Recover the amino acids of this structure.
């Protein structure tokens, strides 16, 4: 059994669950890219793939994650998954996803390449389902890593094969999303992904920025706390850099010394 997840914290969460249930024994593979953000035009072609990597290189510049781009090779991960399925006809693939755009976009990207393995691929979509948290209270998680390991044992009962109909319909939906080639994608409900403009999250950033300079890390944390649906901090910092380039913000400090050295304020404040 091979388990697929789409966020790094989900790897450890699922591994803890596997330790509690021998029937889940298998390897956990992470699809590392976040397909809810960034360009997707011709994503399965060399040119489109390179354009996406170039965009991520720009977004991750000066961030704590700058070197992580070198370890993201989802194309190789899929190639290896297909080889394992071909070499072992008893092997099954389980795709785990939470109710968020990151996981759902990752699912679309992955399953669109696996039609030849139909019948051996299970999906577990924890969509609007209640679980117990560590205090014993019911809540509705949006990400797998929010779920207690013992709760995964109930979740496994939801595993079902991806149907032939889904292998026809879902790749077409993904093609439409890729053709729109937006830089931000939002989960409206179910598996419905909506493309948004690149400035979709700007209002949450600008609402936190004043004439007084404030530390970048504090600003990002405050802005994310106000977002009904969060996105990555690297993407938000990139948007701040873009807003500064457009003359709307003033950024102080040395990027080479890391985020902790950076301050942000309204450009009008420094002009006055």
């Amino acid at each position: 059994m091979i388990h697929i997840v789409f966020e790094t914290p989900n790897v450890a969460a699922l591994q803890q669950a596997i330790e509690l249930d021998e029937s889940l024994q298998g390897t956990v593979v992470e699809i590392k890219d976040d397909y809810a953000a960034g360009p997707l035009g011709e994503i399965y072609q060399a040119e489109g793939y390179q354009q996406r990597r170039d965009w991520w290189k720009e977004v991750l510049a000066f961030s704590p994650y700058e070197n992580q781009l070198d370890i993201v090779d989802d194309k190789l991960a899929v190639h290896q998954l297909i080889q394992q399925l071909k070499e072992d006809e008893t092997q099954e693939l389980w795709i785990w996803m939470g109710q968020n755009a990151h996981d759902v976009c990752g699912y679309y990207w992955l399953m669109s390449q696996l039609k030849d393995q139909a019948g051996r691929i299970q999906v577990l979509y924890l969509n609007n389902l209640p679980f117990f948290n560590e205090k014993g209270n019911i809540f509705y998680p949006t990400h797998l890593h929010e779920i207690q390991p013992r709760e995964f044992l109930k979740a496994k009962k939801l595993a079902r094969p991806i149907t032939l109909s889904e292998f026809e319909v879902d790749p077409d939906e993904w093609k439409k999303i890729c053709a729109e080639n937006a830089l931000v994608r939002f989960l409206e409900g179910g598996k419905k992904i909506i493309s948004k403009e690149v400035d979709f999250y700007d209002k949450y950033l600008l609402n936190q920025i004043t004439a007084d300079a404030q530390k970048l890390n504090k600003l990002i944390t405050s802005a994310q706390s106000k977002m009904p649906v969060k996105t990555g901090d690297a993407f938000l910092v990139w948007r701040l850099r873009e807003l500064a380039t457009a003359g709307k913000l003033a950024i102080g400090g040395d990027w080479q010394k890391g985020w902790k050295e950076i301050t942000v304020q309204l450009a009008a404040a420094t002009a006055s």
Notes: The mean pLDDT is 93. The longest strand covers residues 93-98. The chain has two domains: 2-177, 202-271. Residues 202-271 form a domain with the Arc Repressor Mutant, subunit A fold (CATH 1.10.10).
